[in-house]
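Recap from last week: sequence in, structure out.
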Amino acid sequence: MSSLSYGEFLNGTGILDSSSLKSPLWFANKVYIAYCSSDAFMGNINENETVWGWYFQGQQIVYETIRILRDKFGLDHNSKVVLSGSSAGARGLMVLYENLVENHLPKGIDVFAFLDSPYYIDVVPYTSSFRGFLYETSQVYVNYNVSLDILGVDCKAHYSKEPWKCLFGQYRMPYITLPYFLMLSTYDSYQLSRNIGQDPPYVNQSAYDFAETFAALTTAHIANLMSARERPPNDSRPTPPAPASNELRPYAEPLFGYFMWSCYSHAQSATEQFYLSSTESGVTPSKALGLYLSRLSNSYAPPGAATAALGEEIVALNSSIISWIDLCVGFGCGGGCVSKVVVGDERARGWTYLWSLVSVAALMTVILLVYIVYSMSGFGEIRRMRGRVAYKGLSLGIR
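Predicted C-alpha cells:
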C-alpha cells in the first residue's frame, strides 16, 4: 500500500469534518496518516526473509510524523493534542499511546486519545477457517519486531510469558492510565464477520447465538473496565480550578469516556454515522465526544452536585468516567442506528443493522488532531506535508 496517490488535501467527514454541526473538533488543525504499513502501526522491522522482503515500520511512521510536527510546524508544550485512531489505527494508538507521551511528544503537553474500535475480545471463533484475532496478534509480535518499550511496563510484567497480549484490546486496555475516549459496538461487525466467517443474515441459529454471546462478553468486559476506572466516592482530592473560557486543560486525574452502541458496525468515527447514528437515547458519538471535551476543560458542576441525565445514560459529575452505553438486548438492537433492514432469515431476532464498512483508508488510519497555539496553514482542512522523508531506508511517502 502507498499514500503516493493521495492529493494534498483530503475532505474528511465524521470526526475530521470542518463543520461545527458534525464534529466537536471542527476547528482543529488535522494531520492524517494514511495506513500504508499493514502492521497496525506496531511493526519495527526492515526487509528480511522473516517478513518476505517487506518493510513493516508503522511505529517509525508515527514517530517521524510527530518529529516533523515538532521541528517544522510548531508542535510544543503549549499545544493541545488529540491522538486519534480508527480500527487498525486505534489498535496501534492503544499500544503506542504511553510511549508517544513519554518519549515523543513535548513534555507537559495537553493530550488525550480517541480510540475507535480497538477493543478486540479473545473468543474461540465460530468458523474453523479463522484461527482467531489473538493468534494473528501473536504473529505480529513474533514477525514484526515489536519494540518492548511499547508493551507497557505493568502489562509486560503481567503477561511476561505471553507478551503479545499487550497488543490486544481486551488485555491491554486495563493497563492504560492516561485519559482516553473509547468508542465501540457490542456487535462489532469486523470481529463478528471474521469470527463467524460471513456477514448476516446467518444461515444457522447457532451463528446468532455466537453473536449474542460475543455482545454479552463485550458488555461485561467494558463494565469491568469502567468499574476499575471509577473514582472512589469518598475521594478527598480537591476539585481542579476552572480554566479560562474555551481553554482545554487536563482533568485533575485521567478522565475516561466510553461510548458503546448496539449497532452492527465497526470504526464509524470517520464516516457520517459519527454525527447521524446514536445510542437509543439519542446521543451521537459527536455529541458524546463534545461533552467529554467539555469535561476536560472542567466546565462541570462541583463534586457533590446532582448527576446529570442524558436519556438512559447517567453521568456522575464527580466521577473520573463519563459514559453512554446502549442497554438493549437482541442482535443489532440499537434504536439509534441508521440504515436498518430486516434480516430475511426467519431465525433472525429483531432488527439487524447492516452498515457497509468504511473505506480502507478511513478504517485503518491513525489521525493526529493537533491544536496548535499558533495557527498552521490549512486551518480547518487536512493538510499533508510536502517532501518525502526517508527513515532507515523506508520512504514514508509523505508529500
